[in-house]
Amino acid sequence: MSLFGMRAAQMVDPSRALRGRPESMPVPERHTVLGTPLAPPYPAGTEIAEFALGCFWGEEKAFWQIPGVVSTSVGYEGGYTPNPTYEEVCSGRTGHAETVRVVFDPARVSYAALLKVFWESHDPTQGMRQGNDVGTQYRSAIFYRSPAQQAAAEESRTVYEKKLAEAGYGPATTEIVPAGEFYFAEGYHQQYLDKNPFGYCPDHGTGVTCPVGVVRADG
Prior knowledge:
Distance between the termini: 31 Å
Number of helices: 5
Strand content: 15-25%
Structural class: alpha+beta
Radius of gyration: 16 Å
Oligomer: single chain
CATH architecture: 2-Layer Sandwich
Helix content: 10-25%
CATH class: Alpha Beta
Shape: globular
CATH superfamily: Peptide methionine sulphoxide reductase MsrA
Largest sheet: 6 strands, mixed
CATH topology: Peptide Methionine Sulfoxide Reductase, Chain A
Number of domains: 1
């Protein structure tokens, strides 16, 4: 989804980040596929997981197809600029990564199962890029929201790195960091591939399988 060509492959210094704005992005009321709310409040008993794994159009679709996922949305996380626009994120001057928010029912799908989808849906060894999509917004990251999510994410990275090494890949460059402010992306990005079924968003998965059940499922 690199509409703006080659972008910065190094994180911007916070002092040089764009200033942003106080107004938040308008958020569509309902998920176009699941019919559920995009923004809080979410149904009782659900939890939130947030992942950055390259172009968020295709990655959001990968998650909304999972039974037990209640809602998904795309946005920007891990940077410095409040309420950025897509163009600002693509400039490399906000520090944000394209991120998918997954609202899930832990009684129906485990956090471990979501981690499996995360690892298998992109190449976590590429640093600030996914294939020809180059820039800090395409980096791999897990934004954890609890100690249990952190532990599961770190354990899954250890396990998956061994599988990657066996397949000839280098170490994962995935950041595992506390969740920060999640800024919803513009409405046209939400469920983009449902609205545009022939939209372009390449699959950068390595083909390496992440074992199920070896990471904690109590996140």
